[in-house]
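Instructor's aside before we start: the two examples that follow are unrelated to each other. I chose them only because their records fit on one page, so don't look for a connection. First example below.
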Amino acid sequence: MFKPNDLAFNIIFNGTKLLANPTDSESLHNAMTRTIEQHAGTRVTEWGRCKKDGEHYRYPITLANGKRGEVLVGSNA
């Protein structure tokens, strides 16, 4: 059974709740990128500017296949 480490956190990518589980040597940003890429099956090519939206931080992203997405990070994500 999968057991997240103490640094694991939830993100919401295009309405889907995902668990970003960073390694000991990985930044939180890289963990989010890796998690989204594994879920979407393609690379994240661009992260937009972070904007605070209530209890969340909102990031627009662009995937290698040209599709755009939105990532929410924060309280109860």
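Example two begins here.
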Amino acid sequence: HLHLVFPFLSIPLVSHLCSPSLSFTLSFILFFSSSTLKQEIDLGLKPSYLSPTQAPLPHTHTHTHTPFSQFTYEIAPVFVLMEQLTLKKMREIIGWPSGEGDGIFSPGGAISNMYSVMIARYKYFPEVKTKGMSAAPRLVLFTSEHSHYSIKKAGAALGFGSENVVLLSTDERGRVIPADLEAKILDVKQKGYHPLFVNATAGSTVYGAFDPINEIADICEKYNMWLHVDGAWGGGLLMSRKHRHKFSGVERANSVTWNPHKMMGVPLQCSAILVREKGILAGCNSMCAGYLFQPDKQYDVSYDTGDKAIQCGRHVDIFKFWLMWKAKGTIGFEQHIDKCLDLSQYLYDKIRNREGYEMVFDGPQHTNVCFWYIPPSLRGMEHNSKEYREKLHKVAPNIKAMMMESGTTMVGYQPQGQKVNFFRMVISNPAALQSDIDFLIDEIERLGRDL
């Protein structure tokens, strides 16, 4: 497949067309690229790959077979229509009437979240597009202390300033406390600032927490604020009749981020920003470049989607998603989601009362299961002592290092706030079985018993 890429780069692969050194270099690159790709695919298909990052899948060839941009209909008519059809279906699943609204695929969840902030600013202060931030009062964004860092990054990149991104307190399971949101909105208003935007997280990165969207929506309506739902990680649960209740109230959101390349297993990159109001994406981002977006073309120029985006050239991300949806069907996605959440519950039930384990929070909301493994040498120590915390902090990194060196399995770890390093088990691998969960537990205990 790599050979297919090089003709587009005008790099000769036939030895008599290039110097011996270039020919050797290209052969060297191709050999190691193919070896690396094979390792990534093998890793993605390994059931014991249980890392927080999604498993690589053997669909990489779709990238080399779609070396197109899709900023206008005439450049990529089939892919433009595929994207519009798929985005409409996603909006229907969210619950917006007849799938009305707008949307676009972006380079990832961070950019999709950035779009939501840009659109919110344009909705309430359209003059900022031409006159800059000086045309608006001091604008404030609100998001959970457990939310993805991309909201804070958007605040910095778009000129709000990271100090104008207010972090909201959460309960013990990582969900935003609505009363804290309202109190902080009132505090901002008292200072003379303008509360603009609230991000509700549906599937937080660490805990897999779902903020109470309905209660947050009530507050947003009360104070005339934009409500965005970051469903980058949790969006796949919308496909499950068993679990979509965790998104209760999502249809009240003004915008939603949904990353099929996460829980649904679509190859990177595949992220959508979905907007309830039709036309606002183009209003916010269009610059009407005359060499691309002529209004007098022979077809309906509403199919020219490029002016909605902050990019010009835009990779065809829809093809692999459309192919997978056609192959698996909505029921296939639902079965995958349900299986992964069942496995996370199986893991939680197996270790919550098992000697040597302590849970970070009670009951998984998503596939995130967070826990400490406590080696025998630490079990008799005072848990609040400095020595205990320092030693426990080193346990997860040491066990993961031994896992990586032995090549048996792969899981993630991290600290959170005042909590020392814990294992963060995230199940999205379609090949995983209960036996792989059993193996993981045995492996943690085998590697950690002498720490």
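Confidence is low (pLDDT under 50) at residues 1-17, 58-65.
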